[in-house]
Amino acid sequence: MHKVKRLAIFLLTFTVLLAIVAGLGSATTPSWEVSKNTDHVKVATADTTIASQLGSTSLEGSYRTKETKTTVRLAPHVSVNAIIREPVNAPANHPACLFIHGAGTGLSSQVYGDLASALASAGITTLVPDKRMDTYTTLHRDYQGMAEDYTKSLAILRTWPGVDPSKTGLYAESEGTWVSSVMTAQDPSIAFSILTSAPIYPGRRQMPMAITSYLNQIHAPQGVQAIIPKLLGMNFSPLGLEYADFNALPYWNQLKVPALLNYGTEDTSMPIEQGTLELLKRARSSNNTNVTVRYYNTNHQMRVGSQLPQANLPLDDHYTHNLEAWIGAVCQGTKTSDWATPLIAGTQPQQHFSVPAHPQPGLFKSLGTLIALLAASLIFNLLAVIGAVMIALCRLFNRSQSSMKRYRFGTHLPLLLASQGLASFLMLVACSAYIALVMVHALTLSPLSDNQVQLWVIVKALSLLPLVLLAALIEHVLNAAVMQRAGRAHLEGKHASATSGMGNYGFTSQTPIIARGWGHWIVFALAIGGSLACLCCLSFWGMYSF
């Protein structure tokens, strides 16, 4: 009967704990999610050709090119290298284009070489500067400051021999389009703006869509995909990353210059339809309808051969020709009504997921909270395991001492604490390892195998083990308290037969319910603290969402 009662208490404790962690998992889930995209763009034709009714422009290969290396002074003690490519013997007052880096590139010698050379051979002088790296890190980026730096490169290009400053514009890719949005808003004399693979929206809004697209493409479990809103709605300030909330939308409202927007339809990281509609709407708010849109069957870098960015991939065959034709036409004075080709053309895009409107956090509002819980769980549990093992070994080698000195921990508690700490530690490692596995597959766009998908179910099932051990620990302490009280009643009473079976459970009046001595209490507190922190983390990762 006693064992049945203990089992009932254990099951009740486990059920209550499960309800608590499931509720915590629900509380950490924000109210928003990444939904299917319903805003679509209709292309007029699959032909990406760009032509103006005002006449033809110089073709690629019309001029030999000359390359000049120079430096751009950005601050009193900061300069960057730059490469200028110009057409030899081109007419005076010809167009020019400044290239702005996206994320992941930095040296002018390693990026835009084929693009800039192609444009130069069509009569367009180009300047590719190095990215300033002393103010650019993974955790900190200042797009307004970057715009000021690129403005100094623009000033050099405008004064370069043969260049018409009124025909000088910008080419930017990806993250660089946020920089160019600041520049065109602040300098209305910029002649044109080419925006390739533009995120349009703030990073906090664009990234959930991008990551969800990647995870969906590799067939990641829904439970893993559900983690994305929890993470990306958080406050990132403990790590920096303030640029995640940089908002270019007000700058797009001031896009008054002719613009060319390019997207690759194989690029699942960008809002290739939603971003187009957003940019067109905001340009129209400043009475700018001279926005041309082209879709190519390419990746994020407008290259073919792989959906992922890779070295030495060729550009789409028509891409540079269209850039040159568009720049030449705009510099001829082509207005919206002067185009001989549709404003929106190319491969029909398919954006599967939409950019969320207002990402908000759940119960855990700061990334620092999650990091602190992870650190506490790993450190506390590891220390608790070490402490419990040391105590168990000391008990083993000190059996000859008196019971008062020998029993500094409740009976069986070292084993329970060690098991609890080890299970919590290993579950966090297993959960983190699985998420890392999914991220690696997402970055390489390699679909998960069926076994890898099912492994998520196994990880979730194993996550019940720390919960089971915590319930067993709680039940054990409660039972010890009851049995010790009975033992004391026996010693104080007159009839020894009332508790003659106490020895079967190993409890006496001198056996502590939990611990005796500050060192033992520290181990116990570490184990409980680590266990609770672990359960909070596992709840956040969706381990108890069924």
Automatic annotation (TrEMBL):
The keyword RNA-binding does not apply. Keywords: Hydrolase, Membrane, Transmembrane, Transmembrane helix. The chain crosses the membrane at residues 370-394, 415-443, 455-478, 521-544. It comes from the Bacteria. SUPFAM superfamilies: alpha/beta-Hydrolases (SSF53474). One of its GO terms (molecular function) is carboxylic ester hydrolase activity. This is Alpha/beta hydrolase family.
